[in-house]
Amino acid sequence: MTSLYAPGADDIRQRLRPFGFFFEKTLKDLIKGIRSHNETPEKLDQFFTQVLSECRDEVNSPDLNSKTNAVLKLIYLEMYGFDMAWCNFHILEVMSSNKLQQKRVGYLAASQSFYKDSDILMLATNLLKKDLKYDGNNDVVKVGIALSGLSTIITPSLARDIADDLFTMLNSTRPYIRKKAITALFKVFLQYPEALRDNFDKFVSKLDDDDISVVSAAVSVICELSKKNPQPFIKLSPLLYEILVTIDNNWIIIRLLKLFTNLSQVEPKLRAKLLPKILELMNSTVATSVIYESVNCIVRGNMLENDDFETAVACLERLCTFCDSPDPNLRYISCILFYKIGKINTDFISRFDKLIIRLLSDVDVSIRSKAIELVEGIIDEDNLKAVVQTLMKQFVDEDMVILQTGNVVYERSKRIPIIIPENYKIKMINTIISICFVDNYSNVNDFEWYNALMMDLTMLCQDISDKTLGYKIGEQFRNLMIKVPSMREVTITNIIKLVSNDSINRQLSTILRECIWCLGEFSTFIENGDDLIKVMIGNSGYYSHDVQEVLILALVKIFSTWCNNVREDKDIEIKLILKKLIEFFDNLSYSSTFEVQERSVEVLEFLKLSGEALEKDSEGLPMLLSEVLPSFFNAYELAPIARGTQLNLAIGEDIDLETPFLTKEETDVLLDGQKTDSMSDLVSDTSMDEQAEPGFINDSDTSYEEKEPLNDSDNPFEVERKKERMTNPYYLGEENEEETHKSKDLLDLDEGNTAGGNPETIRLNKPDNTLNSLSVSTVEKDKKKKKGKKKKRVQVLSDQPVIEAAPKKKDAFQKLHGNQTALTPSKKDKINLRMHSQLENFDFSNFGPSSSAVNESLQEGKMREEDELELNRLEAKLNVQGEKNNLSDPEAVIIIKKKKKGRRTKSKTKIKPRADNSPGPNDLLRDHSSTDI
Amino acid sequence: MTQLKYLILVSRQGKIRLKKWYTAMSASEKAKIAKDLTPTILARKPKMCNIIEYSDHKVVYKRYASLFFIVGVTPDIDNELLTLEIIHRFVETMDTYFGNVCELDIIFNFNKVYDILNEMIMCDGSIAESSRKEVLHHVTVMDTMESNDNLERVLS
């Protein structure tokens, strides 16, 4: 069939020719033109500009026919990326035409370009009202078009006006109108929920309609509405269940299943009735999408309890057959469902390990990447190695993977290399690490293998751009060092290899921090510490600031161990190394990073003293080196502690961590006149903290004064801690850091130790530890030799905060982020719907016993509305300011506009009336800018 | 029932033949999606699955002859298999309407294709009419009325 427009437009041309109109192009001409001009991009561009300018002229012509034609061409050009919002008013004219043909084009154009343009929507409203006037049978199609167009154009006021008309249409004799009216009502309900409340029964009666497409539409609309607010529809469950049992149309069955998913989430009682029926449906149907939706309904509708193995097995067995199917889509979706079921209880999926390992080598990488998410659920001691091997192989064999493609005619296999994208590689590495780490390495029984694995991963990570992997592998090495004492020698050899490897230093410097820390902490395993020190100083060019922080103390530790263990006659070498260290630290003490500077200066002074002592004492080592230096680090051996332990330490209630030392004004003064004075360094550090968290400034004055007397309590611990805090400005910073970086799973204590350089802090914390019964247990070392592996088991603690301090922090956090959280719900709306929907928090209590939940949600809604009003008010204020500033200060306007854009979308509907009454030039401008977001 | 975000028809050469957006997006977002998805999907081999993840949502695509039908769907709400079914239904409907549809039909009669699409997928991509007969019937009714209009105009 050829286009009906082409001859029509030709006719126009013929009829207009006598009057001198020759230059109109039909849509066909346009398309042909594009095809004939596409030899070079320049030529095409030229053609486009020419056509566009023609359209611009034609659209302005008084003749509706040529206007329509131009609009049609513009719709086509829009696909090539040419914006057509500028001709919205012309589209409106076309829409208002009496000719169906033109009207249709107009509505099509409207649905393509009208989004978010509030001015044009307001004008369209009146037109739409006129078009929806349903008088007699001839208008069926016209009304149909208008009803379709409604979904783009609807606003709350329009919804209110036309709701009654639409309900009359529900009684139309024509199923087409009934169907269209139902779909249009969906949009109306979203904007004007009262319509649903008042006519609920009338609407629901359409579920019994004779025409299947009307029923289908009604089910769809209820399904959509239940997504937003399932409460009012729960009482329909018996009726819906009846339909589900009797109907045999798979499309409607799927819709009903979706609907029940929504209902079952809020009404658990439905489970008893539904579950058997759904299982039955699953077994009787042959349609895969129905099976998929059934499983989906069971899983997402909270119908699968975490001990209901029977149902789970029933679902999983169906999925298993999907996984074996040649259709990749089935394999993919069943992987996703597997994951959801595994999330309910990992025991459900644990016996499917063979299947999942097989899926890991699927030809399709996206299926692999879904399967990899399942791996954690099936891993155990026996299959760990196999899984890791499968994954590691994919790094190596990358190009060797062969895809068999059998063509029906030629029936031959083609070798197509599968390209493994980098994000999949990253996912693999992360998975390998996490499956080994799970349950404190309970699945790893061969740590030599694990050591080698980590070395391999390190090598692989060099070529991957995600450098955070380095941190993760570094952590693994650190865990190995601490938790597996028997492997320490092997591990440290590996670590030394890494630290002295040039390409690692260059490409994966993130791994170094943990590695270097290990070298320092376990320096007793290193014999030739002097060489290592030289290597590390030589490589120091690669190290970033956070590595340098660790490096400083690691070097001192290594030096301390080494110089106390070398033979007597190495005095000269000790002096040499000491000199090197002093030189190195001297450089670092000018570092731009406060932390590095602080640590290096601390160490530097001590080493200088030691150097002087070494010069004086020719007999053996001076006391400073043989006694004092080791005592810094060797007070007791480090044991692993559970993640988050430090957070559970009781924070003295009289310690105020939140109040800044200085008020805002004082800080400003200090920052302005920053001096080289050493004191100002100390202060500015705290003030920097304050700047980062401006929320704390509000309550500064009062609580700060309260804090003073409390701190003078007699508690010796507190006095000591306080002293520590006063003398060591780093202390505060460290503690803040711990709060945010929870990922540092252990050894936070040690960090505190090395940082303060003062072992007393740790001892102080230790009794606290036991007091809170947060015992850190270690397995006796003797046992380990028997198995040929050594492990320290760590008792994993619950995350619950033991002390009140944590909730307090939360409050502060909420205070800080209060604004953001208030905004989020509306953001969600924005994603779901083009316009702010009022259905979610609408009170349906008029037609039934009101449940408390609804009331609550209503109140919430009210609160939110109030917030919104407040926002609107603010915004209006901003607008006024913006307009004022417009005249004087262009920079200020930009800032205000940005703010507005963020909020604009949510309050759109409320602002509109004002914009419509007087669409002044400013308003127009603003609206356009917001549509461009 | 569904929550389609957009539907794009792309030719094997990467040319866009049809676009329909069901959610409000800025021009730059739209351009980015089209630009990102086209090469990703064109590069996918047969035998790979038709569902991919892209930014915050999923994309279901299906190739028919030289055309790729690309649909953005909402994860956890849309049934991917059903989306494939809808695409198939759409193609079937066009096939019946044009009679053995080919890419050129879609290029030259894109407004018809939009009409069919609008009859099939309503309310911003949230409701789909599954009956092919139904859709075709209404499109042809509208066509007849249009040609009546044409006739009237010529006669007048």
TrEMBL record, chain A:
Gene3D superfamilies (alphabetical): Leucine-rich Repeat Variant (1.25.10.10)
Basic and acidic residues biased stretches: 924-933
Ranges of compositional bias, category Basic residues: 896-912
Any one of the GO CC terms: clathrin-coated vesicle membrane
Keyword Transmembrane annotated: no
Entry-linked SUPFAM superfamilies: ARM repeat (SSF48371)
Function: Part of the AP-3 complex, an adaptor-related complex which is not clathrin-associated. The complex is associated with the Golgi region as well as more peripheral structures. It facilitates the budding of vesicles from the Golgi membrane.
Description of how the protein assembles with itself and partners: Adaptor protein complex 3 (AP-3) is a heterotetramer.
Protein name: AP-3 complex subunit delta
Organism: Saccharomyces kudriavzevii (strain ATCC MYA-4449 / AS 2.2408 / CBS 8840 / NBRC 1802 / NCYC 2889) (Yeast)
UniProtKB/TrEMBL annotation, chain B:
The keyword Transcription regulation appears for this protein: no
CDD domains reported in the protein's UniProt record: AP1_sigma
Sequence similarity: Belongs to the adaptor complexes small subunit family.
InterPro entries reported in the protein's UniProt record: AP1_sigma (IPR044733), AP_complex_ssu (IPR016635), AP_mu_sigma_su (IPR022775), Longin-like_dom_sf (IPR011012)
Domain of life: Eukaryota
Protein name: AP complex subunit sigma
Keywords: Cytoplasmic vesicle, Golgi apparatus, Membrane, Protein transport, Transport
Location in the cell: Cytoplasmic vesicle, Clathrin-coated vesicle membrane; Golgi apparatus
Listed GO MF terms: clathrin adaptor activity
